[in-house]
Amino acid sequence: MPRIRELDILTHRLPPGRHNAITDVAGVAVGHFTLIEGDGAWQPGSGPFRSGVTVILPHQGNLYAEKVPAAVHTINGFGKVAGFEQVRELGNIETPIALTSTLNVPRVADALMTLAIEQNPHIGLGFAATGRQGYASVNPVVGETSDGFLNDMQSRPIGEAALRSAVAEASTASVVEGAVGAGTGTSCYGWKGGIGTASRQIAARMGGYTVAALVQSNFGIPPELTIAGVPVGQFLQPDNYKPRPEDGSIMIVLATDAPLESRQLERLCRRAAFGLARTGSTAHHGSGDFVIAFSTAYRIPDRGPAMATSRAAILNEGEAITALSLGVIESVEEAIYNSLLMAETIVGRDGNCRYGLPADEVLSLVRKHSPRR
Questions:
Q1: Of all residues in the chain, what percent carry a pLDDT higher than 70?
Q2: Are 361 and 236 in contact, with CB atoms under 8 Å apart?
Q3: pLDDT in tens, 40-62
């Protein structure tokens, strides 16, 4: 199962980072918990299970005490994400970002709150002991796509134990991709979808920053799939393809070390749609397509001791956003391809199957039909 870069068919203008992953942004860690259990007919409440959770940590310290600047964007809002409104209002993230199955969002959000309270016992109780004013709440951020085609989603099997496992596993090294974590039960363009990631390095004269994407792909129908500008889905479709009842969705997480504030991060969020469109997506009516972006360049203390502080900032926003936008578009496109190519065939509940995208056939089709060759 090669990543698309190994096939040498994708033209790009910016170089990748060391891992070509979201963990190329220094300090960012990713962890998965994968649940594959049971086979055969659906047994309500008992499986089969093809699900999981993926966590993205902007840093590995206390995120509630040291928040990071962030923004969110809704491409199409048919989804059940949690925590977006406070991010829009305050422009920061104060928990790990979790991706999971649609009906598991409340359970995962609750688990994120439990972990935050363990690190910050004053949450919900106030600051009487410190002499500061106000009560502390916490805003868990959870994204989702539906894995109901392959998974007993009604059972909602992903909770606190799964989240703790994913956080404990989180690493700043290479990211495991494909049918893992939140991507275990997903579908993409009729094939097996999953987790994918990629990164880009901005030129030194533009700051030398890194920008990267991680996706949970679960959208599209076979004829729409486009790879490296070639309508691969017009020539290659899964055997015995069985449509699912819903349109599907995608979660896109962006990270950068550029010193951007929330408004600038939101501008990058909007550019993610261009990378998504390059792969053939038309954002169906029932598709929940969401973007979360954060910067690791500085931290925002929770109720810091001073009223004001100073930090680095982008002075030439036009040039910086233009360069970073290209990085976002290229990394989102490549992350989606990686989520497909790295996912193996999975058989789930009631024998429902999603086949892994065959890399050799993709390579042959792109070489044959690409206008660049």
A1: 97
A2: yes
A3: 999 998 999 999 999 999 999 99
Half-sphere exposure of 12 (CA within 13 A, CB side): 26
Residue with tokens 């048919």: 78
In angstroms, the CA 18 to CA 304 distance is 35
Domain that holds residue 248: 4-302+313-356
Candidate list 155, 199, 249, 262, residue with the active-site label = 249
Record the tokens describing residue 34, joined without a space: 């994968």
Domain presence at residue 218: yes
Q: How far apart are CA 145 and CA 102, in angstroms?
A: 5
- Decide if 131 is inside a domain: yes
- Domain-located, residue 362: no
Q: What DSSP line would sit under 29-97, residue for residue? A: EEEEEEEEE--SS-BTTTB-EEEEEEEEES-SS-TTTEEEEEEEEEEEE-S--BSHHHHHHH-EE-S-E
Under 8 Å between Cβ of 36 and 50: yes
Closest CA to 94 of 70, 118, 126, 127: 70
The residues with which 213 forms a beta bridge, in sequence order, are 198, 254
Cα–Cα distance between 84 and 332 in angstroms, integer? 20
Distance in angstroms (rounded) separating the CA atoms of residues 190 and 235: 13
Q: Residue 344 carries which DSSP code?
A: P
The active-site residue out of 147, 289, 325, 331 is 289
**CATH code assigned at 137:** 3.60.70.12
Q: How many domains does the chain have?
A: 1
Cis amide bond preceding 69, omega within 30: no
Mean pLDDT of 247-252: 92
| Domain assignment of residue 373, yes or no | no
Q: Catalytic: which of 199, 287, 325, 331?
A: 287
- Please confirm, yes or no, whether 249 is among the known catalytic residues: yes
In the prediction, which pLDDT does 135 show?
A: 62
Contact call for residues 280 and 340 (beta carbons, < 8 A): no
**pLDDT at residue 25 greater than cutoff 90:** yes
pLDDT tens-digit map of 138-150: 999 999 999 999 9
Catalytic-residue membership of 289: yes
